[in-house]
Fold this protein.
Amino acid sequence: MSVRLTHLAFLAAAVLPLVGACGDNKRPVTTTIQGSSTTSTLTVTTDSGTPSGTVTETTAATVPVSYVDAEAAYTARKYPEAAELFGAYTRANPENPWGHYMFGLSSWKAGDPEQALISFDEALRIDPQHRKSLLNSARVLLETGRPREALDRIDRAMGLEPLSAEGLRLLGRARYEMKQVPEAIDAYQRAIALDERDIWAMNNLGLIYIQQDRSEEALPVLARAVELRRDSPVFQNNLGTALERTGHPAAAKEAYEAAVVADSTYGKASASLTRVTPLAEGDTTAVDLSTFVADFHAAVQRWQETAVDTTKTVE
């Protein structure tokens, strides 16, 4: 089986010299930078050197934008500002794919997915092997309901780096949105086999199992995800759902409570906690999550062995 496993220059800104146009009059120019504008004081003299008047002009100055400044805005999560800065940076540095990539990333985070796609595509025009642009444009396409277009980019990225847990995780997401459930499960399992700490692949796989009425299979991967990140309200809520659906209301209640503690505004977990609390009162069954985690490690070993066998077959 063959699977296609797919920042510093300144803005060129030169304040144009002010040129005199009054016959042979001399115009000595003194230029000072004040904030973001250029104030030019023109002293007009006669041929004998006697000052005949002073004219003051203020013109807008082009402020240089560096990659570092724009990236700092992005790191501070000032996404609209970062998008504006990276937009200016790319206009001055049109052949730097990383500038376009960060313009795309900032635009996406600022709520403009279409500009994000345009910027990612420009990065890919300059560097067709710009893997991060492939993967993040795929994410934008998935979020905007275009999984088939996303799949093409994921496949291209996987072609550049076949053994990528990140790529496989996105592949699983695309396959599931295309209602290709077995293929999605396989992709998530392979992602986890490559990276046993890929918590989002675990969560997504567990969620698929729950949605497919396979909550028993969801318990190991979700228990491991919670073990790795106990303060995640999403992971705790999903674990609670799997526990509730497998007949463990008391343990489910604990998971829902942990989700609400992590995020008191999480309405879904709050509603589930309210629902399951009466059921938990009579449940005395002890649930040891470490048992499920052990099951998870055993499953990963099987998935890794399967991946090795598949590689041998392809060779």
About this structure: The CA atoms of residues 96 and 105 lie 15 Å apart.
